Amino acid sequence: MKLLLLVSLISTFLFAKEILLDDLLSEYESSQSLYHKTKQESAGNLILFSRSELDRMQAYTLNDVLKTLRMFSLEATRTGMTNLTKSGSDQSSFNSVKLFINSHELNSATLGDALTQYGKMSLYFIDHIEVYQMGNSVVFGNEPGSMVIKLYTKEPSRENAASVQTSIDTRGSLTLRAIDAREFDEYSYLANFDVSKNNYKTYNAHGYNLSRDGQRGQVYAKFSKKESFDIEFGATKERYDAFSGLGDAPLHGHTDATNAYLQATRHFDDKLKFIISLSHEKLEVINRDAVAIPIADTPRPKQIDVGIGSHIISAILEKRFVHENNDLFVGAHIKHQKFDINEYKRDGINTSGSWGPTKRNIFMGYIENLYNINESNLITVGAKLDRYENVDAKSSTEHILRLGYVSLLDDRWTLKLFAMKSYVYPMFRQTTFSPYFNINPDLQSIKNRTYSAELIYKTKQNTISVSAGEGEAKNMIVFNPMLKRYVNKDGTNTFQRAYVRFEHNFDINNKITLEYFKIFQKKYVSSDQGGLIQLYNKIGKFDIYNELIYRSKYESAFGEKMAAGYDYTLGIIYPVNKKLDLKLKGENLLSKAHEVPLNGVDVPVMERRGLLTMEYTF
Amino acid sequence: MRALILLLLFTLSSLASETSLNLQVKIMEKVLNEISINKERIIWSDNKTICKSFKKSNLIQTTPDCKQATIIILQDKNNLPKECAHCIVFVLDYELLSKVPKSFGAFFWKKGRPNIVILKSRLKGLSIQASSALEPYLEEKIW
Predict the structure, then answer these.
(1) What would you measure as the largest C-alpha separation in chain A, in angstroms?
(2) Angle, CA of A54, A55 and A59, to the nearest 5°
(3) C-alpha distance from A540 to closest chain B C-alpha (Å)
(4) Cβ <8 Å between B114 and A25
(5) Which of B18, B113, B115, B116 to substitute to test the interface with A, most A CBs within 10 Å?
């Protein structure tokens, strides 16, 4: 903390100087940032990570960004993955976060939450990230989520280069990334390739080793014709050790995950587009335990083998009508989902069961209207109607209504108010198949309402945002340990949330962000408060980044008392010449980052490590 | 029109574009003011928006007729009139440095950042002197 304050004070004095060409270039870069074209202030409470911020943060994976998000804690899981957990709640609580690359939703139909599967995704091909919290706009389409994370890919006309980047860390992890993006006449392409071997500390629980080491590979390619079409292809393959698995005495286990998608977008003019996409997902899990794996039935097996997957076909048509003070957006979306249960073995013996619906068609229609009441006041009204047709199972119709009001009170003050009535549809592992608990095909969606107010004060150097909101959920989906399945619960759950965020720009290259948030609810089983300090400095040729993430102490659902988390990251970038950059990063340097108790050991998302990266541009 | 401003702000477009154009021109003015060409600096450009913005800032003279210009700011090689081949050229696309022999420098995007490159060999050949402020942007040859 002292170090941070010292660096902050020094930076205040160091950076008063005449405007140089380099500073003008930085200002120009900032004014031309691609987020100016994509961000939608009226779509929710926005957290933005610009290209320059992601570079200076040395955000190599999505988790490097997720761990900074207010109202959530990034946590390790029993099965070697990571999970973004809502503050105050634990990992078993329902959490629907939607993740998009451009306009494609990254589906994890089998796991329900894409973030568990894509946390280690490399960001080398990503330009900027927009995170929308509370009352997200219906224009994002797809099934609704409590938070929407939009990743936008780099723009070939801004790249015009091929680069390779390699990282090695103090645990022997190794990553190799490559990107090539160019524009030729009206065509452009972007190609990204990434492989990594990820090592973590091996823990010991009751004499058994818990490993979550893994390997990962991903490709992304985009080919576009200006104002005509985009074709995108993305694929990932990942294999990682199962850590504790579901039992307490793990002998062997791993997860193999494969995902691929192909999406084509046709722009008929700048206001009408048609998108068609295909996604495929395969997940294979092996979990072997010395004692037993806790499942719903008896006898409890010592090994389970699971092979599941999904296929999704999706078509979207969207049209925008702009007329004087009015901007009307209309969309229609058809999605076909098919789930496969290829293998389910207990102790090597094929086990059949009565699974829930494996085929589903979703028909969605949505409309949003932005209207300028006058030059300082904007009102937005959105509605979405979704019909879920389950083959051989109960179907249902859901809807979303959203109201928003944005007012520029004067040159400095902005007020944003949002109210939204929405739903969360149950997941595949709750309704259709789970190796560990009974399924419930009759589950109904959660009905929720959110209200939020945000007041923003902005000057040339400072931005202060203060926000408060309330969420309520009816017909909650909770796990019933007696029935060993998820059920709908009567009654209403409510929570309130508040945050304050302050950003100060010392100059174009030096800035600080301070943030604090708190969740208010009846019972807390994880951190209910958190904070963030980010300090970006440029001293000579060195780019220096300091980050401190705080999560409050808590008592888990099983009564374990956990200490407060302080995750301190320091990053330094040194450009050796115009082609070569050297980057050093220390993560969890205090070794006090937020932890969760898993099978008797306290585990952070990332143990303390140092990371050396070299980037060469051709 | 004023009523539209807020709508644009919260939907697709950005008000940053005007600031951005001013900055773009400011950067080029700074570069061109740091070179000496033994003639008065008079600019012509095939990008009319840039030309307009130069005219507005009034720091460097502009002309609608390239024959009267001494410096050309070029975006597209096909727009370079033959009768203006006598002028030195500052290009807005890195590739143009190799295609236009009279070009001495470029302002372009690479790896998501705006870059300035001034070619040492071309400065010499075109009898242009660059001040020390441009030292960090001098390159021996085209990459």
Answers:
(1) 76
(2) 55
(3) 13
(4) yes
(5) B113
Residue A617 forms contact with B (CB below 8 Å): yes
Of A589, A498, A509, which is closest to residue A4 (Cα–Cα)?
Answer: A589
Q: Which of A341, A345, A337 is nearest to A393 (CA)?
A: A337
State the total domains in chain A.
1
Both tokens assigned to B94: 């890195």
Q: Other C-beta atoms within 10 Å of A150: how many? A: 22
Tokens encoding B11:
């939907």
Identify which of B37, B34, B131, B33 has the alpha carbon closest to the alpha carbon of residue B88.
B37
Closest to A568 in 3D by CA, of A608, A613, A604 = A608
What phi, psi does B130 have (nearest 5°)? -115, 140
Identify all chain A residues contacting B23, using CB atoms and an 8 Å cutoff.
Answer: 24, 27-28, 31
For residue A7, the enclosing domain spans 2-617
Reply yes or no on whether the pLDDT at B11 is more than 50.
no
Distance from CA of A32 to the nearest CA of B (A): 6
Helix and strand totals (H; E) in chain A: 8, 36
Stated pTM of the model? 0.92
| Alpha carbon distances (Å) from A587 to A214, A533, B24, B72 | 19, 14, 38, 50
Interface subset of A 275-334, CB within 8 angstroms of B: 322, 324-327
Q: What is the pLDDT of residues A265-294, one digit of tens each?
A: 999 987 899 999 999 999 999 999 999 998
Count the neighbouring beta carbons within 10 Å of the beta carbon of residue A140. Answer: 21
pLDDT band, very low/low/confident/very high, at B6 (cuts 50, 70, 90): very low
d(CA A190, CA B136): 30
**Which domains does chain B carry?**
15-139 (3.40.50)
Three-state secondary structure readout of A505-555: EEECCEEEEEEEEEEECCCCCCCCEEEEEEEEEEECCEEEEEEEEEECCEE
Tokens coding A78 = 């029993």
With bands split at pLDDT 50, 70 and 90, how would you rate the model's confidence at A195?
A: very high
| Tens-digit pLDDT profile for residues B30-71 | 999 888 888 888 999 999 888 888 888 778 888 888 888 899
Residues 6+ apart with CB under 8 A from B116: A21, A25, B27, B31, B105, B106, B107, B137
Of B19, B11, B31, give the one whose Cα is nearest residue B134.
B31
Determine the pLDDT at residue B14. 45
Give CA–CA dist A277/A49, Å, rounded.
Answer: 27
Report percent pLDDT > 90 for chain A: 74
The tokens for A300 are 């409890």
